[in-house]
Specification:
Length: about 190
């Protein structure tokens, strides 16, 4: 390798080190990791109330309320996140991804956003259709466009359930992909989100 090229490579690396990895904005990173924690809580409670229903009625209703209120919180945070993202696009990945991989990643993120928006809406409509209006963490009621309707309630619950499976599948791709980028491809994808 000619000397000038070696020097250029070294200087590029030094520049990158000095500049540091271009990360997502602090707000985008905070919203990503807060959402991860909230999803962990909501999914745990969802599985608890569905498959291990507590006998104590008051306790059960409290679990439902925390599940549902936190789901609405995720909906609001996701809306904020998407508005913020419109003005603050993700930083580039170094080294860049092949176009095919970039497309798959993009589709995974778009689908995750779609689920983060539709899942709480389906759950909220289902709850109201079953005849249980939501008091957000017991603080104030959230108005619903639909009231009790036992014909559509099971359909909405099934949509909510189906989306839970979709979310699980998307995360089974998303999380190993983040680790693949970091440990196998050794690019800065994960560091941009930390
Ligand atoms: C991102 C937000 C949410 C996630 C990840 C989530 C996840 C889950 C999961 C994994 C279950 C157990 C599987 C099932 O039975 O469907 C569940 C059940 C349930 N969720 Fe959610 N949920 C979310 C938001 C909401 C919201 C906002 C409400 C209502 C306001 C809600 C109401 C329910 C109800 C009532 C059940 C019991 C089963 C049913 O009747 O559908 N969920 N949820
Ligand atoms: C509930 C779990 C999770 C959800 C719902 C979720 C959702 C998302 C979404 C929607 C994006 C796209 C961000 C954007 O470009 O606007 C994203 C990016 C990212 N997530 Fe997650 N995530 C979750 C868990 C994780 C975990 C556990 C990790 C790490 C092991 C992780 C690592 C990343 C990384 C590195 C990016 C940036 C990807 C890129 O820019 O190409 N995520 N996540």
């Amino acid at each position: 390798m000619p000397f000038s090229e070696t020097a250029r490579t070294a200087s590029l690396a030094a520049t990158r080190r000095a500049a540091g990895t271009a990360r997502y904005t602090a707000l985008a990173r905070a919203l990503h990791w807060i959402t991860v924690l909230l999803i962990l809580l909501v999914a745990t409670l969802g599985i608890w109330i569905t498959f291990f229903e507590p006998a104590d009625q008051a306790f059960k209703l409290r679990l439902y309320n925390i599940h549902e209120s936190t789901g609405i919180l995720i909906l609001v945070l996701t809306a904020v996140r998407l508005l913020w993202r419109a003005g603050h696009p993700p930083p580039p990945i170094t080294p860049p991804l092949p176009p095919m991989l970039a497309l798959v990643a993009h589709l995974n993120h778009a689908a995750l956003y779609a689920v983060l928006l539709t899942m709480p809406i389906a759950g909220f409509l289902a709850t109201n259709a079953w005849g249980f209006p939501l008091e957000w963490y017991g603080l104030f009621p959230i108005p619903s466009p639909i009231g009790k309707d036992e014909a559509i309630a099971p359909i909405l619950s099934n949509i909510h359930f189906g989306l839970a499976i979709v979310l699980g599948v998307l995360l089974l791709a998303h999380i190993p992909a983040a680790l693949f980028h970091h440990f196998v491809r050794k690019d800065d994808t994960l560091r941009r989100m930390l």
